[in-house]
């Protein structure tokens, strides 16, 4: 039987079958490029350009009502036409400037726009046709299944963070003689060694910490022998079905080197926590794991992400183990595998979940490492050059690396209108009406098309909030890495920490505050120009003012993100409704359901009101299929039909059973994946604007209280007041 290509499966194979024929594909490309070229370079008057722009946008709105991938491709085609026409006009018609200041600032904006245009095109290549690969069943005879070493690298994380991952890994449904769990402890801690001995897993150490996580894994590779290696960050708790979902494709494709599954986070990241968007707005990582990785998979360009992945040992060893030349060892390893002609795969089924970074400063530090590492790869092992990669793979890798160069372009966008408002510099040498006729269609089409493609995984405008917060901090390390890729070191992302009180992170917010002040000055200058200063360019003034007001909305949300909310729970609460039972000391029992859980307790919905004293002992029963597990607990609160219970100290067997009934359930994370509804653009910008207003209030409240404290110190006043609460 002829095997189906792993990169042409499911619905995608039906949609792309026609284009497998070389003559038809060549003709389609020639016709497309001819039509595209003619539409892009044909000169038009203002009226003709407006007519074309309106007609094409109406056509896009009509196409957007249709379902299916081909409608999305048609919208991409229209977007490419409009955006290419805008960029051609920008380069050929708007850069004739006599004033050196105008030319310098204009070139800066043009570079930022070219960067955004290239990223837009490469993004379309990545996301136009996600593969949507499905799992392949394993052979019925489990004795034929391969051996697997599970690696759980750790360095300075608390044992409380790691223990659930270890117990869940022990619960993976795989023949016990074919799986071995290894805790790779680069902290060389006695409590970890004792824990590993008690639960029956290998505690692996080395006598140095060279090359950080990559070196830790490579040392373990030299001392283990299983055919495959599954890697989990120490806070990523695998479900029992992880290997059965991931391993089927290895038997189907002998050249498959790696299968990657999503990183899913059951705790709120700093943006979600500080902006109160957890569960209502797709977070920063959902676009990558929900869409981009699935799109990469079509082109055999899935990236290794360092965790929630299975690798074939022989192929990883062939490339010298996990890459150590850069601080993004995972993506670099995947690049090396692809250069040797090996395949990778992505399954968009969350089968593990972990902790997001707790603080914005920690989040920024993590992104700095990613940005530095991708810039290092771009510099020392550029995917555009060298052997082994096909062109779609090169483009996918280049887009991933270009993404982390957004720092300077984002800073330019946040300050570009100030060039005219403050200095009268024309960064685009054209009338306001011509800018409207060319630029607005480009912006509207790109947003409409991306909204259709990304809708469930990224809401419009939110990427600008994320990038504006990080832009200054990303810009510096990427620039340094491009100049000297050997500079910089690996930093471990802290997980499982607490934030004892609310505070305004002025250190992280200082770049946003500076940009905010500049844009406020720009608004004042613009209003001044609207009076008698610039009567001949009122439309230009209004255009730049509108841009500045938009920047203020984005920067206000950035300020709100820097107001750290408290994080007092060491064990995060996770919503989960499953059957349970309460067993009381007097012998009677009560059937009920959980509504949330953590490693320390449960929230329970009761069928009727129940009065229970705080601290009253009981047992909670949870179920795994037909198997019942009981856990000793005490009542923490009782309110009508709801009670909360806290677990008493559990044995390792009970802890393992608790993990099996909760975080290791095969269905728990997949049911929450990609369920965000599509939201209209005006509602999204309205939501960001409301968050921005909160940010302004938080900023003023912070500086009001800070000024009061400083005044009291200078005048020898009384004790400082308690930290101000976050404004609602």
Automatic annotation (TrEMBL):
Q: Which residues form the PilZ domain?
A: 567-662
So what EC number does this one have?
2.4.1.12
Membrane association type:
Multi-pass membrane protein
Q: In which pathway does it act?
A: Glycan metabolism; bacterial cellulose biosynthesis
Catalysed reactions listed for this entry = [(1->4)-beta-D-glucosyl](n) + UDP-alpha-D-glucose = [(1->4)-beta-D-glucosyl](n+1) + UDP + H(+)
Reply yes or no: does the keyword Transmembrane helix apply: yes
Key words of the record: c-di-GMP, Cell inner membrane, Cell membrane, Cellulose biosynthesis, Glycosyltransferase, Membrane, Transferase, Transmembrane, Transmembrane helix
> Could you say which cofactors this protein requires?
Mg(2+)
- Domain of life of the source: Bacteria
Can you tell me which residues the record assigns to a coiled coil? none
Question: Do you know which InterPro entries this protein is assigned to?
Answer: Cell_synth_A, Glyco_trans_2-like, Glycosyltr_2/OpgH_subfam, Nucleotide-diphossugar_trans, PilZ_domain
Presence of the UniProt keyword Magnesium in the record: no
Name the enzyme group at the top EC level: transferase
Where do the TM regions start and end?
23-40, 46-63, 70-88, 103-125, 395-413, 419-440, 511-530, 542-563
Question: What is a GO molecular function of this protein?
Answer: cellulose synthase (UDP-forming) activity
* Domain Glycosyltransferase 2-like per the UniProt entry, residue ranges: 150-319
Question: Subcellular localization, per the record?
Answer: Cell inner membrane
Q: What functional role does this protein have? A: Catalytic subunit of cellulose synthase. It polymerizes uridine 5'-diphosphate glucose to cellulose.
Q: What is this protein called?
A: Cellulose synthase catalytic subunit [UDP-forming]
Which species is the source of this protein? Variovorax ginsengisoli
């Amino acid at each position: 039987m002829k095997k189906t290509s792993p990169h042409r499966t499911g619905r995608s194979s039906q949609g792309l079958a026609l284009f497998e024929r070389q003559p038809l594909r060549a003709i389609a490309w020639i016709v497309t490029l001819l039509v595209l070229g003619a539409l892009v370079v044909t000169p038009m008057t203002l009226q003709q350009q407006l007519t074309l722009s309106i007609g094409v946008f109406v056509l896009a709105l009509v196409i957007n009502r249709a379902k299916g991938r081909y409608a999305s491709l048609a919208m991409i085609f229209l977007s490419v036409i409009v955006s290419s026409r805008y960029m051609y006009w920008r380069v050929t018609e708007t850069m004739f400037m006599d004033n050196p200041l105008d030319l310098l600032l204009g070139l800066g904006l043009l570079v930022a726009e070219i960067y955004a245009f290239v990223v837009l095109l490469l993004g379309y290549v990545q996301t136009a046709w996600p593969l949507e690969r499905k799992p392949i069943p394993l052979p019925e005879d489990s004795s034929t299944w391969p051996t697997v070493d599970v690696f759980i690298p750790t360095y300075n994380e608390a044992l409380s963070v790691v223990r659930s991952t270890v117990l869940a890994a022990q619960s993976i449904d795989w023949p016990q003689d074919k799986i071995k769990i290894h805790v790779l402890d680069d902290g060389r801690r006695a409590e970890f060694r004792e824990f590993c001995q008690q639960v029956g897993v290998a505690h692996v150490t080395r006598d140095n910490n060279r090359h950080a996580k990559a070196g830790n894994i490579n040392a373990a590779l030299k001392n283990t022998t299983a055919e495959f290696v599954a890697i989990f960050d120490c806070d990523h708790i695998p479900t029992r079905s992880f290997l059965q979902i991931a391993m089927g494709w290895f038997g189907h494709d002998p050249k498959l080197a790696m299968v990657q599954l999503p990183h899913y986070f059951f705790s709120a990241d700093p943006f979600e926590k500080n902006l109160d968007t957890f569960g209502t707005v797709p977070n920063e990582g959902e676009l990558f794991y929900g869409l981009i990785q699935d799109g990469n998979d079509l082109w055999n360009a899935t990236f290794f992400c360092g965790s929630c992945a299975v690798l074939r040992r022989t192929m990883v060893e062939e490339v010298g183990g996990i890459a150590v030349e850069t601080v993004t060892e995972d993506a670099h390893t995947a690049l090396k595998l692809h250069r040797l002609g090996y395949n990778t795969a992505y399954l968009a089924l969350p089968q593990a979940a972990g902790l997001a970074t707790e603080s914005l400063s920690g989040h920024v530090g993590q992104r700095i490492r990613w940005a530095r590492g991708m810039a290092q790869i771009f510099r020392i092992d550029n995917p555009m050059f060298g052997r082994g990669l096909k062109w779609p793979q090169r483009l996918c890798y280049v887009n991933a690396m270009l993404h982390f160069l957004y720092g300077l372009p984002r800073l330019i966008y946040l300050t570009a209108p100030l060039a005219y408002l403050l200095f009268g510099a024309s960064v685009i040498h054209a009338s306001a009406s011509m800018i409207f006729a060319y630029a607005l269609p480009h912006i509207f089409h790109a947003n409409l098309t991306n909204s259709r493609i990304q809708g469930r995984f990224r809401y419009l405008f939110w990427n600008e909030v994320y990038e504006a917060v990080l832009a200054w901090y990303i810009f510096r390390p990427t620039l340094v890495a491009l100049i000297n890729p050997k500079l910089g070191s690996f930093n471990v992302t802290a997980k499982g920490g607490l934030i004892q009180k609310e505070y305004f992170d002025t250190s992280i917010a200082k770049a946003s505050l500076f940009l905010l002040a500049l844009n406020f000055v720009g608004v004042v200058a613009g209003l001044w120009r609207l009076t008698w200063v610039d009567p001949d360019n009122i439309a230009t003034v209004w255009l730049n003012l509108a841009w500045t007001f938009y920047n203020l909305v984005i920067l206000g949300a950035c300020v709100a993100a820097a107001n750290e909310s408290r994080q007092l729970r060491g064990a995060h609460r996770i919503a989960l409704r499953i059957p349970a039972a309460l067993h009381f000391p007097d012998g009677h029992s009560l059937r009920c359901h959980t509504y949330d859980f953590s490693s320390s307790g449960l929230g329970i919905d009761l069928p009727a009101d129940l009065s229970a004293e705080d601290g009253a002992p009981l047992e909670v029963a949870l179920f795994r299929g037909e198997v019942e597990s009981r856990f000793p607990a005490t009542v923490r609160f009782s309110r009508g039909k709801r009670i909360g219970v806290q677990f008493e100290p559990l044995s390792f067997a009970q802890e393992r059973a608790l993990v099996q009934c909760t975080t290791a359930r095969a269905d728990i994370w997949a049911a929450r994946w990609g369920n965000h509804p599509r939201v209209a653009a005006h509602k999204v910008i309205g939501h960001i604007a409301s968050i921005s207003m909160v940010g302004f209030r938080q900023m003023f409240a912070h500086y009001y209280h800070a000024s009061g404290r400083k005044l009291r110190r200078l005048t020898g006043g009384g004790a400082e007041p308690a930290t101000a609460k976050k404004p609602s």
